[in-house]
Write a structure and sequence with these properties.
Elements (H helix, E strand, L loop, with lengths): L2 H16 L1 H14 L2 H23 L12 E8 L5 E7 L21 H13 L13 H15 L17 H7 L8 E2 L6 H12 L12 H13 L8 E2 H7 L8 H22 L4 E2 L8 E2 L1 H11 L9 H5 L5 E3 L10 E5 L6 E7 L4 E6 L4 E6 L3 H6 E6 L2
Parallel strand pairs: 5-6
Antiparallel strand pairs: 1-2, 3-4, 7-12, 8-9, 8-12, 9-10, 10-11
Helix pairs in contact: 10-11
Length: 391
Amino acid sequence: MNKQGRSKLNTFFRYLALDFRRLTRRVKKAWRKAKVGTKRAIIAGTACVLLGIFALIIFVPSSKPTGGGSEVIVPFGTGNEGGTVQIVITASPTPEPTPTPDPTLKKGMENEEVRKLQERLMELGFLDIDEPTLYFGPQTEAALKLLQRQLNFTEGYNGEEVVEDGIAGPKTLALIYSDIAPKYVIKEGMEGTDIRAMQEQLVDLGYLDKTTSYYGTETVEAIKVFQKRNNLSSDGLAGGETVDLLYSDDAKASESKIKEERTKANIEKMIKVAESKLGCRYILGNRGPNSFDCSGLVYYCLNQAGSNRRRLNAAGYSRISEWDKISSINSLKRGDLIFFYDKNFTKVGHVGIVISGTYMIDASSNKGKVVKRSYKTSYWRSHFVCGRRPW
């Protein structure tokens, strides 16, 4: 109620007090003359009036309404100046709607939404863990950064650069759960620890010489060769299928790597077999297991070490172009075959197996047996033809 209304209400009660005695005398006189039923009706009516006045007074607010409540003006009576006395009743304000909670997920959080996010990131190929959890840890953060990097290398999303902060905000979450969410793939120009790990696999398999953490032209070409050799689409993009195979036992190494590994393993076995035959008899045309000529010993040792090369004579072995040719006697290595001219220098007439920088094992017609001896004597130096690396 405003100030004017309160003044009028006070005036009303003052006039009521002045006429109270006169009213009391009249009421007493009328009361004595009234019948019992009339008295009861008067008592009931008076009680109702008093209760109504009491209720209106109680609900008069002490201050102006706040919080958006509505006001209802109720007429009360007439003041001595002819104005209407009013009472203002304030309705309860309408409650404001509850704000929508922020869906953002970031490192350190722990709830069911984190588990759902991890499941989706695993499905898209960005997260590799045994099973999803409720905790947003470093691996989940790293996976989100990979996805955000992917968005920056993919046209058709929003055209704006995405901050690679590892935080799943509302826009990122909406995209992750949409039908157009990107799947993990490495493209030229990308950089990261996942690329270094992939390059390490390529180095181990013999497709790449070094790691850089950058997916440049050399790595792209290495991936293409790997994909072609392993019967994948040779597009140079390291997607989920390519990456999975890189870390699989089924991955085929490069031809050069296989040759290198075969050389390391089989050379030692070949030499071990040759050493076991020291002292065996020399018999022309024999190829083991207990007697040999020079090319027969080479054939037997190669065969026992896993080679499927057929039996040739010394001249035939010296002309195998698939084997690297060594032109200097000082450049020979353990496991190389060494070839010599015959006494008249008319043809390649003898072959031995190099076991060090000085010695060879060969089946000697002169000695009549398999022997170990130096190939750097003046005679052998003068008759040296070449060497071949048989693996």
